[in-house]
Amino acid sequence: MLGTKLPSPQAPKSPRFAIIVAGGTGTRMGADRPKQFLELQGEPVLLHTLRRFAAPALSVQRLVLVLPADQLEVWQELHARYAPELRHEVVTGGATRWASVRQGLLHLGAQTEGLVAVHDGVRPLTPLSVIENTYAAAEQHGAAIAAVPPKDSVRGLSATGSYALDRSRLRLVQTPQCFELGLLRRAYQMPELPTFTDDASVVEDLHPIQLVQGDYGNIKITTPDDLLLAEALLRRG
Ligand SMILES: Nc1ccn([C@@H]2O[C@H](COP(=O)(O)OP(=O)(O)OP(=O)(O)O)[C@@H](O)[C@H]2O)c(=O)n1
Ligand SMILES: C[C@](O)(CO)[C@H](O)COP(=O)(O)O
């Protein structure tokens, strides 16, 4: 899956950066450590994710990794053991995903122009083609995110029960989410709201969001079942 063929062999026009957010604790996984450090085919989940963004074909110039403050030493040891050659910059995260993205953006302080991808450290199976297409769409439209149509029927909840929703008008949102750097900076200068569940929800009052075809295999490792599924998808190749 890592080697998925990329559509454009040309060098990107704008410099590309990536913020990989891995500052969470993984409460829903209920493991003995944050889920980004659990093993997937013999390597930490997070390493699979980083390797994808470090792929030369994507031309990402700076890879910023956001980690929980109390896990910096753990990561230092894992990095040295599994992938000492992998170049990246580590920053400490915050109490929420929003706060962690903000820390990553602050770290990119000196950069004025370019495109930045924000990606969950716990999405280790993202095809390179999805990453490339999302950067390319952000280059054209300013803001682009990966998403897929729901496969199940969907219902909304009401005071008295529930009602059918038209799933053809819905999309399930994934990462990466790519933006012009200046736009994402402006969006993250506003105060945090409880409705912010991803970066698109932070940006959308400032700029329209372009949807890019995601991938059903681009799962977020959230509960133990997801880890089993990720193992199976990686075995399939
Ligand atoms: N304070 C936080 C919270 C989340 N994240 C990151 O945001 C991504 C998506 O979040 P989620 O899957 O909810 O991770 P956790 O917050 O770790 O999980 P949980 O909600 O089960 O505790 C993950 O890569 C997670 O590490 C982060 O960087 N900083
Ligand atoms: C950003 C995200 O992965 C898009 O689907 C998702 O919103 C993260 O949600 P979580 O509540 O942090 O799991």
UniProtKB/TrEMBL annotation:
<feature type="site" description="Positions MEP for the nucleophilic attack">
    <location>
        <position position="167"/>
    </location>
</feature>
<dbReference type="Pfam" id="PF01128">
    <property type="entry name" value="IspD"/>
</dbReference>
<protein>
    <recommendedName>
        <fullName>2-C-methyl-D-erythritol 4-phosphate cytidylyltransferase</fullName>
        <ecNumber>2.7.7.60</ecNumber>
    </recommendedName>
</protein>
<keyword id="KW-0548">Nucleotidyltransferase</keyword>
<dbReference type="GO" id="GO:0050518">
    <property type="term" value="F:2-C-methyl-D-erythritol 4-phosphate cytidylyltransferase activity"/>
</dbReference>
<comment type="function">
    <text>Catalyzes the formation of 4-diphosphocytidyl-2-C-methyl-D-erythritol from CTP and 2-C-methyl-D-erythritol 4-phosphate (MEP).</text>
</comment>
<dbReference type="GO" id="GO:0019288">
    <property type="term" value="P:isopentenyl diphosphate biosynthetic process, methylerythritol 4-phosphate pathway"/>
</dbReference>
<feature type="site" description="Transition state stabilizer">
    <location>
        <position position="28"/>
    </location>
</feature>
<keyword id="KW-0414">Isoprene biosynthesis</keyword>
<dbReference type="InterPro" id="IPR001228">
    <property type="entry name" value="IspD"/>
</dbReference>
<dbReference type="InterPro" id="IPR029044">
    <property type="entry name" value="Nucleotide-diphossugar_trans"/>
</dbReference>
<keyword id="KW-0808">Transferase</keyword>
<dbReference type="InterPro" id="IPR050088">
    <property type="entry name" value="IspD/TarI_cytidylyltransf_bact"/>
</dbReference>
<feature type="site" description="Transition state stabilizer">
    <location>
        <position position="35"/>
    </location>
</feature>
<comment type="similarity">
    <text>Belongs to the IspD/TarI cytidylyltransferase family. IspD subfamily.</text>
</comment>
<comment type="pathway">
    <text>Isoprenoid biosynthesis; isopentenyl diphosphate biosynthesis via DXP pathway; isopentenyl diphosphate from 1-deoxy-D-xylulose 5-phosphate: step 2/6.</text>
</comment>
<feature type="site" description="Positions MEP for the nucleophilic attack">
    <location>
        <position position="220"/>
    </location>
</feature>
<dbReference type="InterPro" id="IPR034683">
    <property type="entry name" value="IspD/TarI"/>
</dbReference>
